[in-house]
């Protein structure tokens, strides 16, 4: 796996997912598996664009689920070939939607995979519909646990703050245990 700063990677084709990926929890894992599956199917690189720190951690000073090193280790275990890490700060927050889109065009994505509530760019003005004006975008529905609740970083943070660490760990998942049967065990 190779790691890049924004704008440093240029590719003739790729399949990308973009996100904070704080925790690289089971919901993220489903999205990453789908992105990797499509990249493998097309025979092109699997690229992840992520942020450090995660936007919610920077903006709301909330609990960070994984350090950058831990996140990168988990992304490597998920099979990422290229990871772009954007330093999320005041400057990054001011990046215009179309500047970000131009940056993505340097990666020549044949597909971009996201969750349905994906937002990006200055004041979160970018969304799935704007991305679709420029790229082929696939949307993966959020993964739910057995209680029917969406698995999210915010939910995991809340569980940890309540001291419900066993439940939080269950939602984070153990990447070391992933196999073909694990990948197919989720209804998406």
UniProtKB/TrEMBL annotation:
<keyword id="KW-0285">Flavoprotein</keyword>
<comment type="similarity">
    <text>Belongs to the RibF family.</text>
</comment>
<keyword id="KW-0067">ATP-binding</keyword>
<dbReference type="Pfam" id="PF06574">
    <property type="entry name" value="FAD_syn"/>
</dbReference>
<comment type="pathway">
    <text>Cofactor biosynthesis; FAD biosynthesis; FAD from FMN: step 1/1.</text>
</comment>
<feature type="domain" description="FAD synthetase">
    <location>
        <begin position="13"/>
        <end position="154"/>
    </location>
</feature>
<dbReference type="InterPro" id="IPR014729">
    <property type="entry name" value="Rossmann-like_a/b/a_fold"/>
</dbReference>
<dbReference type="InterPro" id="IPR023468">
    <property type="entry name" value="Riboflavin_kinase"/>
</dbReference>
<keyword id="KW-0547">Nucleotide-binding</keyword>
<keyword id="KW-0288">FMN</keyword>
<keyword id="KW-0808">Transferase</keyword>
<dbReference type="InterPro" id="IPR015864">
    <property type="entry name" value="FAD_synthase"/>
</dbReference>
<protein>
    <recommendedName>
        <fullName>FAD synthase</fullName>
        <ecNumber>2.7.7.2</ecNumber>
    </recommendedName>
</protein>
<keyword id="KW-0548">Nucleotidyltransferase</keyword>
<keyword id="KW-0274">FAD</keyword>
């Amino acid at each position: 796996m190779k790691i890049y700063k924004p704008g440093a990677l240029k590719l003739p084709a790729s399949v990308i997912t973009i996100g904070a990926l704080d925790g690289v929890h089971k919901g993220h894992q489903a999205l990453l598996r789908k992105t990797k599956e499509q990249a493998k199917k097309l025979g092109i690189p699997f690229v992840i664009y992520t942020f450090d720190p995660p936007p919610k951690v920077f903006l709301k000073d909330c609990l960070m689920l994984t350090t950058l090193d831990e996140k990168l280790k988990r992304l490597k275990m998920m099979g990422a070939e290229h990871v772009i890490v954007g330093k999320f700060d005041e400057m990054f927050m001011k990046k215009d939607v179309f500047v970000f889109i131009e940056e993505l065009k340097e990666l020549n994505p044949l597909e971009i995979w996201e969750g349905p509530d994906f937002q990006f760019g200055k004041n979160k003005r970018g969304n799935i519909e704007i991305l679709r004006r420029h790229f082929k975008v696939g949307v993966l529905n959020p993964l739910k646990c057995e209680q029917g609740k969406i698995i999210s970083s915010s939910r995991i943070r809340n569980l940890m703050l309540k001291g419900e660490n066993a439940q939080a760990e269950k939602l984070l998942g153990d990447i070391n245990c992933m196999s073909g049967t694990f990948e197919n065990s989720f209804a998406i």
